[in-house]
Amino acid sequence: MRVVGSIATAGLLLAPYALGASSASEAEVIIPNDHPLIYYHGRWDASPGTWWAGSGFKLHVQDLSTLTLNLGPHTTAPLASVGVSVDYEPFYTVNVSAGANVIPLNGSPSSPQMKGTASVVRINVEGWQDNRINLEAISLNKGARLLPYTPSRLAFQFIGDSLSALTSGVGSGSQGQFLPEGVNQAWPFLTGESFKAEHRVNAQPGAALSDIVSYGNEHGVSYQYFRTEDTGYFYTTDHNYTTPWNFARDQPAPTHIVMHIGANDASQNVTADSFVQTYQNFLTRLRGLYSSQPIFVFTPWGWPSADGTISYYYQGRYERIVDERHHLGDHNVFLVNTTGWVTWEDVFPDNQHPNIPGHQKIASLFEAWLIRWGLRPETRWATPAPLIG
User: Fold this and answer.
1) Which of 239, 291, 321, 364 lies 20 to 30 Å (CA to CA) from residue 45?
2) Domain SGNH hydrolase-type esterase, which positions (predicted)?
3) What span, in angstroms and rounded, lies between the C-alpha atoms of 91 and 183?
């Protein structure tokens, strides 16, 4: 067994990985969780463990043929669902739990198979709940070698509620709800993929922007966005507290900020004037982090009904929010008018949230909007992979 780097997690022993499943493990390359060539994205606590849907990591590996995730006790029990993509092929779901988890690398046509090539593996948690993986180490096959992962020069930051990331987490106790492959099928993620960009999704189902209790969330997004943990912390017995998020860890820093939020404020009877003030205060805090990045403010696409009508909330208020920013001299805030983007055919009839084709439609419409605005997708991923141009 070859060990690369040093182990960061307190008390982690290499022996279980060396003596565990097979004699072949003696030839494995063990990558500790503090290895500098692991490209972490999203929100990770010190354990290190994931919070928020879509958090995960990326690896660029020479001569890859096997990969095992060694996960610690803070991993969701009995399991968490993660999305896996090899060489930028579509994500597929793998259920993992505490202990050693062999990750199948044949879930896509361009899976690693050629010696002398370098593969890109992307792994993230899919769900808005049951979404914690506690990474202790990664085991690779003999001869494998980590290479630097170069992130895209484009980096989207999405902020929202269930309409941006209402996910299921297949196999993690919430199957059957909404998107089978979780955040990887949601419009923010699809948009990031289309532009070959890095993308972070901080969207919490049921949460208002206002810092109020809402549908099981103890805090609103205007509070939680600045914390490491998502609102599930409140129900997590081994971590029922929050810690500030160090935004310097978001590398690269977001180049574009996208917000679609307000449905739960309206449902909780937050007045329009109060909502506008909360939104403005939140944008002021964001400007302290992102001084010049474009911020895109979505109007609601509303709640479609079978009879063809659509119910809207806070009509005219998003326009007011953007206008007020312009009056303050901040002309890098833009209104995205989504009126008409979502109809009854685009939603699940029992909850009026976008279905899979609906999310694809929203992503396509927003991508077209961004191109008209002046943003062009990258022509290729910044870290190349075999069979991908």
Assistant:
1) 291
2) 158-360
3) 11
Residue 387 is assigned to a structural domain of this protein: no
Write the burial class of residue 235 (CB in 10 Å: 0-12 exposed, 13-18 middle, 19+ buried): exposed
Nearest to 146 by CA among 45, 27, 60, 264: 60
* Rounded distance between C-alpha atoms, residue 74 and residue 336, angstroms: 39
DSSP 307: T
The C-alpha R_g of the chain, in whole angstroms, comes to 21
| Among 200, 198, 93, 81, residue whose Cα is nearest residue 149 | 198
Q: Identify the CA nearest to 103 among candidates 128, 83, 118, 89.
A: 83
Residue 167's pLDDT band, with cuts at 50, 70 and 90, is low
Domain count across the chain: 2
Q: Per residue in 178-211, pLDDT tens?
A: 789 999 999 999 999 999 999 999 999 999 999 9
Burial bucket for residue 16 (CB in 10 Å: 0-12, 13-18, 19+): middle
Considering the domain architecture, whether residues 234 and 99 belong to the same structural domain is answered as no
The secondary structure of residue 387, as a DSSP letter, is T
169 residue type, one letter: G
Domain around 79 = 2-147
- Give the Cα separation of 143 and 163 in Å (integer): 44
Domain-located, residue 322: yes
Closest CA to 210 of 298, 272, 300, 278: 278
Give the DSSP letter of residue 182. Answer: G
* Location of structure tokens 């739960």: 264
Ranges assigned E (strand) in 189-331: 198-203, 256-260, 295-298, 303-304, 310-311
Whether residues 308 and 279 share a domain: the answer is yes
Token readout for 60 is 């660029």
The string of pLDDT tens digits covering residues 207-265 is 999 999 999 999 999 999 999 999 999 999 999 999 999 999 999 999 999 999 999 99
Residue pair 47/172 in contact by the 8 Å Cβ criterion: no
CA distances from 337 to 258, 298, 301, 302, 340 (A): 13, 6, 8, 11, 9
Q: How buried is 109 (Cβ within 10 angstroms: 0-12 exposed, 13-18 middle, 19+ buried)?
A: exposed
Structure tokens at 206: 């049921």
Terminal-residue alpha carbon distance, the chain:
34
Half-sphere exposure of 81 (CA within 13 A, CB side): 24
